[in-house]
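Pipeline run #58 for the internal structure catalog. This entry was flagged by the ingest filter as a single-chain record with no existing model, so it goes straight to prediction. Upstream metadata was stripped on purpose; only the residue string is passed forward. Reviewer on rotation: M.T. Logging verbosity set to normal.
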Amino acid sequence: MASTDTLRCGPKNGGSPSMIVFLLHGLGADGNDLIDLAPHWGATVPDALFVAPHAPDPHDGAPFGRQWFSLMERTEAARLAGVAAARPVLDAMIDAECARAGLPASAVVLMGFSQGAMMALYTGLRRPRPPAGIMAYSGMLIGGVEGIVSRPPVLLVHGEVDEVVPAAASQQAESALRAAEVPVDSTFSPRLGHGIDDAGLSAGSLFLQRASAGITAA
């Protein structure tokens, strides 16, 4: 994917990055939707480069926006086929950004919202070299834990009254991940729908701080 299809911000300290945080947008959005998180979280991890790629395909359900995979058919099998097909694209993005920054794959955090969270979980848990962490906001664990090869720390964040992806999806993901011995923390926000609130941002800040410390200590 060309560099013009990727938005970047940071590091806030002006130096070379020691960590790359991928911000993976949801269905019908693009990289502009999440890049504004970079200044907020950059205050916590000033040595991080934030990367917000545009998903590879035009949204097939609207005249604008992008998608990682189609959701015209919302069966479990269709979702699994979608994330599996999109995974090599995201893997290539991760590898290219690591090469560009001169950092190992272990210095990556994958953050995603909604469909982007589905991609972060599916891809991150199957990377041969585990990322430093996965942050899944309003997402879903597609495909369960079958085929996972790495167990990075995971943060699940969800609004309890999400009308698009039910909070039960993250609750089920939490149970499945714990059973597979994946370290997982979760934050469920009362009265929050399909979005990110201050509690979710704060949980993300703490998670990124821990991930950065882990990278530095490695």
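catalog note: The chain has a mean pLDDT of 93.
catalog note: The beta strands are 6-9, 19-24, 48-53, 57-58, 66-67, 108-113, 133-137, 154-159, 184-189.
status: ready for reviewer M.T.
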